[in-house]
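Q: My labmate handed me this sequence with no annotations at all. I'd like to see what the chain might look like in three dimensions before we decide whether it's worth expressing. Could you predict it?
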Amino acid sequence: MAGELQTKFRRAVEAFHAHDLVKAERILQQIAKSARNIFEVEHLLGVVMLVQGRFAEAEMHLRVAVALNGSSDEALSNYGYALKALNRPQEALAYFTRALAVNPRNPLSYHNRGTILAEFARSYGEAIEQFDKATFYNPNFADAYASKGGCLEKLRRYEDALVAYDKALSIRPDLETAWLGRGNALRNLRRYDDAFTTYDKALSAKPDFPSAWVGRGEVFTDLKRHDEALAAYDKAISIKPELESAWVARGHVLWSLKRYDEASAAYDKALSIKSGLENAWLGRGNVSFDLKRLNEALAAYDRALSIRPDLAEAWLGRGNVLTELKRRDDALAAYGRVLSIKPDLAEAWLGRGNVAWGLKRYEEALAAYDKALAIKADIEGAWIGRGNVFTELGRHDEAFIAFDKAVSIRPDLEGIEGLRLLAKMNLCNWDNLDEEIGQLTATVRLGKANSSPFALLSLTDSPDDQLSCARTWVRAKLPHLSETRSGGEIRRHDKIRVGYVSPDFRKHPVGYLTAEIFESHDPDRFETYAFSIGPDDNSDLRRRLEKSFHRFVDCEHKLDGEVLKAIDDAQIDILVDLAGHTHNARLSLFASSPAPIVVNYLGFAGTLGSRELFHYIIADHIVLPDQNSQFFDEKVVRLPGSFMPRDNHVATIDDAAPNRADHDLRQEWTVFCCFNNAYKINPAVFGSWMNILKSVDQSVLWLSDVGEIAKSNLRKEAKGRGVDPDRLVFARRVASSSEHLARHRLADLFLDTLPYNAHTTASDALWAGLPVVTHSGNSFAGRVAASLLSAVGLPELITRTRADYEALAIELALDKQKLADIRGRLQGNHLTASLFDAALYARRLETAYEAMYLRHQAGLPPDHIDVQARG
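A: Here is what I predict for the chain of 871 residues:
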């Protein structure tokens, strides 16, 4: 430069050092107009703009400077910094490398190169090597120590990170990034009080430091002090509205509080600021997953992984979605990827356990759950998983312990309080039972999904509580239900197309009861379809069921969308759900109006809790009297006789006469029996049974082969009520259903349970010729035996009070002739009772279907339907 320009340039340098950037830039622009392509001018102009954050303009000037003098390590390093700021990391890394080739002793170039390796390549080990070289050439390079601390933190070497941050702060006590990093490391070490103190130091160094407020918020989040966390994030946002990390953190808290709309808004705001935020995409995936929008969730997780392929939490989310979609091999692969990144991520072991459980690989599932718990003892999902496995294995004592532990960690877990009580009932452990049932029903009344509707059936006889439970359960399981509904399409076919959806087209009570009904449908008026969402057990009954329909579609391994397409392709007019809220049901299939008319039938003894999902329930006047219609969201279709069908071909009775001695029963005994599951027995019922035994000499109670703990508890209870425990006889397992039916003839009287009656079990007893005494309750589940007795012509065996129940059982046991007369009538009614006439039942059910269909064809909404007894 000429002398005059040199003088101007010195003035620009002086202004730059005095932080008067506007003056420095003005002078440099004047020089540039007079003499172009002067290296010193272009370089300093670029630096001035870098300092102001004008990175695109800085890049233009620094590119010229580098072209003019490629041997200036300072210019090369500054150009690399501009490229880094413009999100061109690979180019930036190349220029930092060139700068170091020119001057391998420049600490700033090493630092810049390290930041690229850390922030973009996530090569934290290599980055640490660069920061160490920077501090080797400049032992007082505080920023390099702080940057090293950040990498050590990413590697979860939190104690080493603290050493690095402390070194930085010993050099520059006001370095707010080091205070921030120190607070983050302390938070990860769960030294929360120290973390708060450290963030406060950062804020004292820089009161308007928004990232320190984010740090405080994350400590509050860890401590589940959500309101204080949100306040801290809001403070950060008030200082810097475009701070994307604060919006993401805010979204995470709102997601954990299930405030999904607000969480989504926070993530969307973060992404509007910076579209490549992997944690915001992760958050969107989590929200979509919770709302059962599985395709959206999968897309969001994949977007996060496209930005950061080693984001373990996104692989975890992907695995969880694939598990829900029953793509189990893909799910296992996703969890494997998680564990290759974070071997100690407990949630990934939980996911592997859930997949193994779904595949019935129980030992493998338990091992995975145990691994999760070894890492994180309070991960409630692993306790739930253990409980589920033990329930499947009939190890109810261990299931109870697992569910109890889960509830102790999080009392409001979806469905688990009910499962805990169900496990306890299976053990016949009645300690504090009334109090615990009271607590559960209180939470149900508050609208909490602490119990599944099925678990509640054996715990309360209140149809009001059962309705509340079902409604809450549907809202929990299908949170976006209202967004997916559509109007019922009017279809016109020559025959009414009826589709049955069930996981139980196999050796199961539903299969036993319905096979002959399906066979009896009139093929001239109806076209029937089965959509089997459960396993094929390769039984004779399964083969028979497959032949019973116009078309049988095996959907066990199909995704919901594939099942729905099969239903839509069949153009079903009336879709009948045979599972309701029972095991392996798929409530989600009914969330998108899969057919114009949807019916709740047989599988679940109660309302399904959604008038949006289901239009009708099949019942009768006894299980669902008029005054109880208010407790059902479905319109009630009442059949004459009993709502429950009976297939008498599948349930043939062994012709060989059974012998009491073969079943540990003496000839002289009066044998009362109840073959219900243990969870249907409660203190009130058992108390009545003990009163009956005490009133009838030489009488015994013959019960199902319940578990050893349940047997022990029942014997203790009997003894406590003054009855010899040996008067309880537990049935051994038999090889076939026909042998089981035949042994009913060894008993004198079947004693029913309440609030959950014998259902198929009572039907079996009546078919075998064994009278049933029932105490009719208030709920659907508590009135089924009364329905069966009425349909078989024995209404006198229905009692209304506990005292009447006991008195009738005692009377019949002592009056042998009266009991013999009843048994004779029951045997004679086999030929005439509607309960045992499957063809008649099928005609009545078809009449109901036609009434539903005609209303819909006429454009009328669903309404109650009474089917008359004729035909």
